[in-house]
From TrEMBL:
Name of one Pfam family that matches: DUF5753
Species of the source: Streptomyces rapamycinicus (strain ATCC 29253 / DSM 41530 / NRRL 5491 / AYB-994) (Streptomyces hygroscopicus (strain ATCC 29253))
InterPro entries xrefs: Cro/C1-type_HTH, DUF5753, Lambda_DNA-bd_dom_sf
GO molecular function, one term: DNA binding
Protein's UniProt name: XRE family transcriptional regulator
Signal peptide (from-to): none
Superkingdom, natural source: Bacteria
HTH cro/C1-type domain segment(s): 18-73
């Protein structure tokens, strides 16, 4: 079978998990391959996500590595059985791999925790906000290219659509609510969308106000994606020079603790069954409404 030249996110993650398990077990590629009658080179390609592994061999390999977590092994088998294709595959020729990876990660998440500093989270943006943002950041883009970017982001938002059980908890810095993207009319529409989204039972919106003060964790937006299986979380962190994708336990724990601290420092979230008239400026909904009506 020909090797994959462009493995999907799931295929690369499966390979990385198998490599991690092998290294934890203290086995060489040759020793690990012997467990399932496989050559060293073949196993190298599996760990690189470049070729598939049958589920029966995968289970034997996990057993040989001393992995006993049934939910974790089941999740790995699911990753092995998946071809990695989804709605995002239609955009493969026009979008970078990092964008496709993000869409694939979101589609497999059961819970997401997001922190944004200057922009509204992409999963909660209106079309008008997207268009204004893309025109600003991509001044040379054609109208067709802008339309394609909007379609892709709107398709990503389906992960929070009707019938979805995926939860999305976001902490948004007040600066993002006041940042002018597309003018007053666009921002009013965006803030209204944010209020409506925050009422959904699967969406939690909190605002981190200016008067909280300055701390080191303010500077880097990030998204923590959870799959419901411990050990298979992923962090996507935006840095000035690159978008980092982190899956090691230390990074996941660090960003998980950071998000907890951010959430505790932010204004209380919206309570869906509470009347809007009860909200004051000192909760998230109240502050969003205050900015909306004074914009």
């Amino acid at each position: 079978m020909a090797l994959r030249t462009n493995p999907t996110e799931r295929q690369r993650r499966l390979g990385a998990e198998l490599r991690r398990l092998r290294e934890q077990a203290g086995l060489t590629l040759h020793e690990a391959g012997a467990l399932i009658d496989m050559g060293r080179v073949h196993l190298t390609h599996i760990e690189g996500g470049r070729t598939a592994i049958p589920s029966d061999r995968l289970r034997r390999l996990c057993e040989g590595y001393g992995c006993t977590s049934a939910p974790y092994i089941k999740a790995l088998v699911g990753m092995a059985d998946s071809n990695g294709k989804g709605w995002w595959s239609a955009y493969r020729k026009s979008f970078p791999q990092s964008a496709l990876d993000l869409a694939e990660l979101e589609s497999g998440a059961t819970a997401m925790e997001s922190y944004e500093t200057l922009l509204i989270p992409g999963l909660l943006q209106t079309d008008a906000y997207m268009r204004a943002l893309f025109r600003s950041t991509r001044p040379d883009a054609t109208q067709d290219e802008i339309d394609n970017l909007v379609r892709f982001r709107r398709a990503r938002q389906d992960v929070l659509g009707a019938g979805s059980s995926t939860t999305f908890h976001t902490v948004i810095h007040e600066a993002a609510l006041r940042m002018e993207v597309g003018g007053s009319q666009v921002m009013r529409g965006q803030l209204t969308r944010l209020i409506r989204a925050s009422i959904l039972p699967t969406v939690t919106v909190q605002v981190l106000p200016f008067d909280v003060g300055v701390r080191g964790w303010y500077s880097t937006p990030f998204l923590l994606l959870r799959t419901g299986v411990p050990g298979l979380e992923t962090v996507v962190a935006d840095h000035p020079s690159a978008r980092l994708r982190l899956a090691d336990a230390e990074s996941v724990a660090h960003y998980g603790a950071t998000f907890k601290e951010l959430s505790e420092g932010a204004l209380p979230p919206v309570v869906a069954d509470e009347s809007p008239m009860l909200h004051e400026k000192r909760d998230s909904w109240g502050l969003i409404q205050h900015i909306l009506y004074t914009h």
